[in-house]
Sequence to fold (471 residues):
Amino acid sequence: MLTMCRVPMSPTPRDNRLLPQEPATRDVARHLYDQVAGAPIISPHGHVPARLLAEDQPFSDPATLFVSSDHYVTRQLHASGVRLDALSVAHGADPREVWRTLAGHAHSLAGTASAFWLRDELASVFGIDDELRPDNADGVFDRISALLLQPDYRPRALFKRFGIRVLATTDDPLDQLDAHQALSESVTFDGRVVPTLRPDAYIDPAAANFRVNAERMLSATGAPATFAGYLTALKERRAYFIERGAVSVDVGVTDPATAELTTPEAERLFQRALTQTLSDADLRMFRAHMLLQLAAMSVDDGLVLTIHAGVYRNHSTPTFERFGPDTGHDIPVPVSFTRELKPLLDRFGLEPNLHLILFTVDETVFSRELAPLAGFYPSVYIGAPWWFLDAPDAILRWRSAITETAGFYRTSGFIDDTRAFLSIPARHDVSRRTDASFLARYVAEGRITLAMAERIIADLVDVIPRAAFKL
Ligand SMILES: [Zn+2]
Fold:
């Protein structure tokens, strides 16, 4: 006789999602999570453009908002066989059809962080508790579309509703930061939106348009076309950003090698970079020297230096040629920091003014390199799990890998690093729930007291990111 499998009819309530299943530990986790569930959000690194808030226009439609503009989502649909142009409203796709495609593929996204965030966003921002399915796709699309027209769903109103205390953008060094200026002068907006200088395209000779960018920067600042003039121009742009509220410089590298060149050698490589005649070995040396120069500048002007290392960008050449960067095919590669950063840390690692925050998508370095480095150098902070690792299990693995060596206070605090504005609260909430779960286990195992866990969970959303980013 066939016996029916009895499925519990009361699944984990939304309030207890991601918390431990064992009741006693869950109670502790729930207690800790409740302490910070509604705490303001500090977002010291991300990619939401300031003009979104400066212009404060209504979001156009659900498909652009949740699918077309989010390469975390489009990459998974693409992997399921959907063409990227069929997901891109900018390439002429019909928003309702894009939304139906998303609903039709809900099963292939299930279990991913993106699916979890989407469910949370629909519930907490739009009050839609139903799982998205083909048979309710049109109704959900219409409901969201109607809400997006309401004043409460404009970017500034949502910024306030989300409780964002600080939001950092990521900006081109020659950006005049007019949108930031407009926000800081606005009498109807009191949020703190700070620029971040991202110099990659100006310091990596292999970047497209490096020469044009370097020359534009030199002429914008009136500096001579020498290596010293080039450094002066970079320093001037940093000063410009600092005047407008910047607290950090962010650089993306495949390999975080650092090196110190002599002045004549740096000059020689710079001139070769301008004429695009660098050998591969010289290219690596120039990049390594520039990373060390960025640290030297941070010691002088105080900007926090964040390094995002170990991603092979634009892996699919045909996709890059057709759709450009940030379209879902950046793939992690192995990375190491210990030997690579030694020249930089020998020069500046003990400087009180240097804050160096290291992010990677290579989990193997968390316990082997990042925790030991941050467990000695006061300048080094362990960046929160980044990109593919910004997910519940990965966050727990990261905590497990680093805490026994570096504790909780040598970290950056949670970083959402997102372009998807509406996902900011959902992402911070995942971090708060997983941190509460992790701390609850430490309390249950007698490793820390409940009182200490209460202090740590509060500091993780405020004191710790403020300290790392000098906020
Ligand atoms: Zn970023």
User: Anything to note?
Assistant: The pocket of zinc ion is lined by residues 45, 47, 170, 417 (CB under 6 Å). Strands lie at 41-43, 164-168, 192-194, 196-197, 248-253, 304-309, 311-312, 331-332, 356-360, 380-382. Residues 280-301 form the longest helix (22 residues). Residues 167 and 219 are 31 Å apart (CA to CA).
